[in-house]
Amino acid sequence: MRKLVSVLLAVMLLCVAACSKKDNNTTMSNIDPNMVQATIKALQDKYGDGCKERYERSVPQAAALWTAEDGTPEEFQAFCLDNFVADSAELARMADILQANLESLWGCFNKIGVDLKLHIHVDGPEPTALDEMFGGFDPSAHFDDDMYEQKIAFVVVLNFPFFSLEEKNELGKTWSRQQWAYARLGDLFTSRVPAACNQQLAGQLAAADNYISNYNIMMGQLRDDNGNALFPDMALITHWGLRDELKTHYNQGEEGLSKQRMIYQVMRRIIDQSIPQCVINNDQYIWAPYSNEVKDLNGKTVKADAEPLTRYNYFLDNFHAMQQVDRYNPMYPTAIDRAFSADMEVSYAEIEQLFTTFCSSPVVADVAKLIEQRTGRKLEPFDIWYDGFKSRSSISEDELTAKTQKLYPNKETFKAVGMPSILKFMGFSPEKSQFICSHVTVDPSRGAGHAWESNMKSDNARLRTRIGANGMDYKGYNIAVHEFGHNVEQTITLHDVDNYILKGVPNTGFTEALAFVFQTRDLEMLGYNDNNADKDALATLDIFWGCYEIMGVSLVDMYAWRWLYDHPEATAAELKDQVIAIAQEVWNKYFAPNLGEENSPILAIYSHMIDSPLYLPNYPYGHIIQFQLEQQLKGKVVADEIQRIYPVGRITPQNWMRHAVGSEVSTQPLLAAAAEALKTLAK
To answer: CA-to-CA distance for 418 and 420, rounded, in angstroms?
Structure first.
């Protein structure tokens, strides 16, 4: 244990020292190793060896965060002697006080954030510049500063030490619920990021989100090279709306194929930034994506400048904002570390291995051959979004939209009728259904749609989806069912978890998994029963192909961030070239053999790369978890299993999966099931 103390202290002090060299405003701990050892010895003299493991771990961690502004080394030692709690009952009471106060603080911060972003996220009058300023304000930006200044952070660090991901995965196998809660309290204060730095990051991400939320393509204004309009008047947000529209044209012969190819061309223009600036979110121009010619509404050709690298400027600005946070994070010194080891609690290397192994599997080629047979043509790059394994592929979207618009003409009807019917379908009792619905607020979304959790029991989770003047179309309904799956998880893991600090799930992949469980049943919820004997095999292949696609996209995002850290002085133009090169490299290695066209850049289209840095890997990870969950749900009442599994809360992913399905996260069950599904369909 003494070796562990020395290693922890050395590593943390070196990290802080390294950070201080990057930025003169970054302070260095003023507690040397001798004082750390003296403080540990003083605690041992005072309390004996009964809690020795805890103070030997926590004192070095507290020392690495203590600065001259906090006090002298002697004051540090006195603070430790005065504030370390040895008695287990008193420690449990301290944990209860912390959790109650954190719920109040985090819950109010979250509610303020929701209110300030209302005009940006919810459909209504165009947001003003002032709306955008408030939307970029982070009410919790000073939280860490205040906690350190009041010494509350040091009380937490001193009494609830931090455990590494590797330690949580191993020790957590036998931890009690109380031990898990204590470990999560130990995760609270591992850095000292200044409020101004947090605020800058929040403002940058809000600006990127606003850019994406207002990036619509006016489909009725598109023309092929013969001047033909292929689409009706509709605004599709990139990339989600474009992708979902492309999926709807799979059983429409040459006409559908022409539409898919045009959407693919639009995406290419967005990726390489050759898209004319004037056609973005603007219906006053006619645009031919193939020739890139722009005309006014009178048919006169006009000179149109390309979008000026805006997409990649936002990407680069996100990186620079993250760099400002990096230097204050001794435990997680890069955005990559925070995204994987801290947020996902799965290492970058583990995720990369998981994805590349899957994408390299020979099963992928076999599934691609089946899709080629089903489409009756050679596959093209946009077939990464092949939607033909879903039941709705045989149902007209116009028919589906007519039904959803009639059922849900407004948000009030969806809340009063739609959400209870979904929960009844999933097997929830009337009492639990009423409870969940009473804790979810529905709003018409300005963007594609999202779910926003509540952080206190007295507040509601939010469901946002697009609701048009004629009601909720099928796309909006499909998104709403997905987002409601998030809301169900958010409500259960806030209200039914035994310790507030354990609220939630291990990472966003786990909430995505439940959202997918809901979303894949959306047609059944509308009364469309699939009596196809092959439906289970088709459902498996649908998940499989979705994993393949989003794993490729995620690898592009991951490699782009790794490149940025290797080239921190890169310009937006250099970043654009590199993102395209990375997308082409990943494509050529894992996709071109199955979908043709060398050097396609299509994997770089995802908007998450711009407004949600390093979020994408959560999606395929969620698909993997979803599949393992679906295997667990077979033959059971879905609601019963949800209520058994999700109240375990936010423990580490592998420990969560052992509780949920009896095994760890793995792609092997999905690969094996896909191979079996191919055999079933071949009979």
So the answer is: 6
DSSP assignment of 14-76: HHHHHHHHH-TTS------HHHHHHHHHHHHHHHTTTTHHHHHHHHHHHHHH--GGG--HHHH
DSSP annotation of 163 reads -
- Among 172-181, 349-358, 386-395, 555-564, the minimum mean pLDDT is found in 386-395
CA distances to 141, 197, 209 from 137, rounded to whole Å, are 8, 12, 13
Please tell me the distance from the alpha carbon of residue 492 to that of residue 497, in angstroms, as a whole number: 7
Residues 604/558, Cβ–Cβ less than 8 Å: no
Distance CA 49, CA 514 (A): 45
pLDDT, tens digit (0-9, with 9 covering 90-100), for 366-381: 999 999 999 999 999 9
* Whether the predicted pLDDT of 267 surpasses 80: yes
Distance CA 671, CA 662 (A): 18
Contacts of 393-397 with C-beta under 8 Å, sequence gap 24+, read 393/250, 393/251, 394/251, 395/523, 395/528, 397/248, 397/474, 397/475
pLDDT at 550 over 60: yes
- Round to whole Å and give the CA distance between 493 and 481: 18
Peptide bond before 239: cis, by omega within 30 degrees of 0?
yes
pLDDT attached to residue 195: 79
Report the alpha-carbon angle 241-243-248, nearest 5.
95
- Give the Cα separation of 110 and 143 in Å (integer): 12
If we measure between CA atoms, which residue out of 205, 203, 200, 195 comes closest to residue 141?
195
Is pLDDT of 532 > 90? no
- Measure the CA–CA gap between 531 and 128, rounded to whole angstroms: 51
Distances from the Cα of 664 to the Cα of 44, 347, 546, 655, 660, angstroms = 39, 15, 21, 7, 9
Cα distances (Å, whole numbers) of residue 292 to 225, 263, 272: 9, 13, 13
Which one-letter amino acid corresponds to residue 341? S
Position 481: which residue type? V
584 and 370 in contact (C-beta within 8 Å)? no
Instruction: Please identify which residue in the block is written with the tokens 């009896």.
Output: 662
**530 vs 94, higher pLDDT:** 94
Q: With 60 as the cut, is the pLDDT of residue 277 above it? A: yes
pLDDT at position 564, please?
98
Burial pattern 481-495, b for ≥16 Cβ within 10 A else e, equals: bbbbbbbbbbbbbbe
Contact indicator for 120, 446 with CB cutoff of 8 Å: yes
Say if CB 332 and CB 19 are below 8 A apart. Answer: no
Q: Does residue 506 contact residue 654 with C-beta atoms inside 8 Å?
A: no
Residue 452 CB contacts under 8 Å (≥ 6 apart), including other chains:
114, 461, 462, 464
The DSSP H or E segment spanning 631 is helix 618-633
Please state, in angstroms and rounded to a whole number, the distance separating the CA atoms of residues 328 and 16: 7
- Residue pointed to by tokens 């990375």: 582
Residues 6+ apart with CB under 8 A from 114: 452, 462
| Cα 400–chain centre separation | 28
The 10 Å Cβ neighbour count of residue 50 is 11
Angle among Cα 245, 250, 254 to the nearest 5 degrees reads 105
Q: Which of 196, 195, 186, 197 is nearest to 62 (CA)?
A: 186
CA–chain centroid gap for 348, Å, is 15
- pTM over cut 0.90: no
Question: What is the rounded CA–CA span in Å between residue 92 and residue 98?
Answer: 10
